[in-house]
Amino acid sequence: MSFRVAAASSDGKFINQHFGRASQFYIFEIRDDQYHFVELRKNVPPCGGGEHDEDTLRKSVNLIGDCRVVLVNQIGPGAASVLNSRGIQSFRVQNFIEEALEKLISYRN
Fold it and tell me: Which SUPFAM superfamilies does the record cross-reference, listed alphabetically (predicted)?
């Protein structure tokens, strides 16, 4: 069984972006006990000045719509609810992407 994970990161190494302010997502595929990088997806952040634009939020969710998990530094309850309604689990993580993916694999097994 395989699934995709989106990581909100500015540098591709550390999960360091708030979902609503993420300008890009690194997409990984997890298959069995391994993961590999798939692609980098650029995003227009839906949050600005403490408020979010519903249309832009929907576009951000659609951008990672093929993922089952998104790893973020922070996420608001509204965005988490929209993601959850699309079957995407959000996890607040302050760690290196590789370590977070390895933990995710160990929890899924």
Answer: Nitrogenase accessory factor-like
